[in-house]
Amino acid sequence: MIKVSRGCLADEELAEVKAAFDYGYFGLAAKVVEFEGQLAQYLGAEHVVAVNTGTSALHLALDALGIGPGDEVLVPSLTFVGSFQAISATGATPVACDVEPDTLLMDMEDVRKRMTARTKAIMPVHYAGNSCDMETVGEISRRHGIRVVEDAAHAFGSVYKGRRIGGFGDVTVFSFDSIKNITCGEGGAVVCRDSKLAELLRQKRLLGMDRTSQASASWKTRSWQFEVNTQGFRYHMSNINAAIGLAQLRKVDTFIARRREICKRYDAAFGDLPKIRPLRINYEDVAPHIYVVRVQDGRRDALMQFLKDRDIETGINYIPNHLHPYYRQGQLCLPETEQAYKEIITLPLHCGLSNADVATVIANVREFFAGTPPRGHIEKSRG
Hints:
By secondary structure, the chain is an alpha/beta fold. It is 37% helix and 14% strand. It has a 7-stranded mixed β-sheet with strand order 1-9-8-5-4-2-3, sandwiched between helices. A 3-stranded antiparallel β-sheet has the order 12-13-14.
């Protein structure tokens, strides 16, 4: 089976985990601090707070910004349910917004229409690694005095206006789960510029504890003394997960280059197929997490079954959240989102794909639409 996505780990990760084992303490310890420092250096960020999952990171960020009951947060419906769950976990209401048809990114005109006096934050989602229009997001934020929480779970390594994503909003959140651009096995991070907010995030990720010894770079001593001054959660990253992340971070440029190469091959191979429409993405700036196309003749499900029968796994990213029973909002209709949901299919994209695997995916998609692979394409891909 050619998998639609998976993490790529090897001996380097095992060596880092071995070092974490030898350290002897597996919770919040030295490798977490080291991972945070390496992330900050890579992203050009001032403060990085590592946590156990991307969803935890979103919830932690919203909570630390004071989002709570009675508040509304604008968010695209076409996102992983973790975005919505993080909002509702604070007691706030996620307000589903429509997307642009050619990028599946948040439609800023629809965002403006859904603003109310209760709107306290906007959560742009960088779908497939492609950046939202952060200039417009910033303008909306300043005009209405609302917070910006970037959901960059798909976009680690992507660039916007010459800068790596990780500092355009009040906070930016990343995910390092098992299939992301880099993985910690499970993990996430909150990035921010405000030192006071960063300190609050650090306290809240560990049950609200203010333990000054945590600032020690050596982590050779751990004080049993601490104060609790805020509501917190058990969201900290473990030393073992951080160890995996450190090894992955050293490979990130290679990972991104391979992902871009695969996406460009797909785009070139499907460009002459009238029934398939790739997303509009500039892969010079984007570190792609998933590769999504729209099948426009109503045969999306048939294509998925055709590929499954040939041991090629596909997916759908995502079920629109406003269609889930828990998040239905009256008779809300988001036409672009709902049409996209009928058409989108996610094709295999990860660094474990061989050139032959990519050629197989391309050949089978073209066969489904009764096309012929471009002359020499498969042979070249295998070379």
